[in-house]
Amino acid sequence: MAVHQFAERAPRAGFGNTSPVMTSAIGDKTLRQRIDHSAVRSVSPYERSVIGFRSDPRMQGVVEKNYFDEDLAAAVSRYGQSDEFAKVVSVLAMRLRPGALLLDFGAGRGLTSLALAQSGAFVVSVESDPSEVVGIGALGKLKRPPGPPLAPVSGDVLQLPFRDHVFDIAFCRSVLHHLEDLDSGLKEIWRVLRPGGILLVLNEHILGPFSDERIFLQSHPAVPYGVNEHAYPVWRYWKVVRQAGFRKVHFFGYEGDALDFRDFLATSCRHNPFRFRLMALPCIGKLFRGALYGLHVLTRRHLRYICVPEESCVAISIVAHKPAN
Ligand SMILES: C[S@@+](CC[C@H](N)C(=O)[O-])C[C@H]1O[C@@H](n2cnc3c(N)ncnc32)[C@H](O)[C@@H]1O
C-alpha cells in the first residue's frame, strides 16, 4: 500500500494489529511497552529543533534534505523515491522479503520504517522519544488500514525489549552518533540480530583524526537547540562494530573531493622539474607513473573517510554482518 494513503488523525491509545508471528518472536514485554499517549511529556531538543527549522525560512534546505516536512506521508513518499532509499534497497536486496523481521532502531517518527514496510519486511520501530512530531507518537497518529506491516515500540536502544537472535535485519538512520553509549548500543543490536543477519547504518557523522569536534558542533544547525550531536573518526565506528562481533564491515556514502588522476599528476609534477623529467623517461617514467597512480588510488579509496572537513557535517553509512555461526 502506498504511504500517501495514510492520513493523520487524533492520537489514540495503542496501535493497529500486530502480526502474531512478530508478537511471539518479540515477547509480551514489548506489548507492555507500547506507547501510552496519556503520559505527560516534555518537548525534546530534537522536537524543538525540527519545529524551529520548519518555521525558519533560512532552514528550508535543511528541512527538505532531512525529510522534516510537516506532512509525514509526503516525506515518506519523497524518501521512498530518493537515491538514499534506492541504495538501502540494493544493499538489503533479497533480505527484504515478506516474513523477514526488520528492526528500525532510533526510528524517530517512522520515516524509514514506513518506507521499509512497503518493501515486504515486517518492521519493528523502536524509539525513545514519545513526541508526536518527531518521535514514536507520530506513528500512533497514523490511520492504520490493513497495512503496512509495522509495529511501533517505545523503547531504548541500549536496553531493547526483545529476545536474543530475533531480527533478520537491523537498520538505523542517523542514530549511532546520538547514543550515549555507542559500545553498549552496538552490543545490544548484535544480541537481537540473528546469526547471518545484516546491520545497515545510514548517515553517521565522521571526523578526521585531528579534527576539532567543537568546529563540527558549531556548524551543526541542531546544536543550538540542545540536540546531543556527536561525530567520531571512522576508525571508532569500525572498532565498536567489530568489537560487538560484526564482521565484513564496509563503509560507503561520502565521496569526498574525488581527485582526478591527471590533476593529481599535474600537481605532483608542477613545481618539480626533476620529477617532470623522470616521468618523460621511456621505462622508468612508466614505473613512476604507476607508483603515482597507486598513491592516487590509495588516497581516494582509503583516505576519503579519514581526511574529512569537520565544518560540513560529513556522514557515512556502514554495512556489517553477524556471522552465521
Ligand atoms: C536524528 S534522529 C533520526 C530519526 C530517524 N531515524 C530518521 O532518520 O528520521 C535520531 C533518533 O534517535 C533516537 N534515539 C537516540 N538515542 C536513542 C536511544 N537510546 N533509544 C532509542 N532511540 C534513540 C532519537 O530520539 C531520535 O529520534
Summarize the structure.
By secondary structure, the chain is α/β, with parallel strands linked by helices. Helix content is about 40%, strand content about 15%. It has two domains: about 5-255 and about 310-320, Rossmann fold (3-Layer(aba) Sandwich); about 260-300, no CATH class.
Care to describe what's here?
By secondary structure, the protein is α/β, with parallel strands linked by helices. The chain folds into two domains: 3-255 and 309-321, Rossmann fold, CATH 3.40.50; 261-302, no CATH class. It is 38% helix and 16% strand. It has helices at 20-26, 28-32, 45-54, 60-65, 72-80, 83-92, 111-117, 137-140, 182-192, 213-219, 234-244, 261-270, 273-280, 284-303, and strands at residues 101-105, 122-127, 150-154, 167-173, 193-207, 232-233, 247-252, 315-321. The radius of gyration is 23 Å and the shape is globular. The protein binds S-adenosylmethionine. S-adenosylmethionine is lined by residues 46, 106-108, 111-112, 126-129, 134-135, 156-158, 173-175, 178-179.
